[in-house]
Known about the structure:
This protein has helices at about 10-20, 40-50, 65-75, 95, 120-125, 160-185; strands spanning about 1-5, 30-35, 55, 80-85, 105-110, 130-140, 150-155, 190, 195-200. The chain is of the alpha/beta class. The strands form two sheets. It has a seven-stranded mixed beta sheet. It has a two-stranded antiparallel ribbon with strand order 8-9. α4 (about 95) links the parallel β4 and β5. It starts with a strand and ends in a 7-residue tail after the last strand.
Amino acid sequence: MRIGILASGRGSNMEALIEACRDGRIPAQVAVVLSDRAAAGALETARRLGVEAHHLNPRDHGSREAFDRALVAVLQRHGVELVCLAGYMKLVSREFIGPFQGRILNIHPSLLPAFPGLDAQRQALEYGCKVAGCTVHIVELEMDSGPIVMQAAVPVRDGDTEQTLVARILEEEHRIYVESVRRFVAGELRVVGRRVVRVADPPRP
């Protein structure tokens, strides 16, 4: 299976996926990495790891929909079958989701549906949560929605700052994103209503 990754930042989750594909933990190939930001560290990291990487400037397109169509064209040109959002900070439109319906995964640094959107770790601290975490989900049109593939809980310690909590959650992000993509590529997942279940463990009646 050929994977396309979209990233807006440094790309640590992207790097975890590329490395997992290279060492055989995920039986797939990362075909291309795309970013909406020319200075994104993900682009340099991907190229260093031997993966083709491109910047597409949203300002070169007249609308979000036109930009998404441009992204889709590049992904399709590279034969991408699964899209992974890895710190991609732009909302995607119907034009993007349509061609890859059910084949777009995202990682979010909270236990969804709690704290969607930006700064989820800070929101968890400010709310006084005792447990935070991260979620891999299938992307739908509504932000940070879609059936949940995997989640991991991370205790919030009394002395945590946003930075320390971010770092501990990120470790779990790398782990569950790699495993979620592996399960997807291996055909172990199916969606039943709002639930993602493993084929090896069908839901009880």
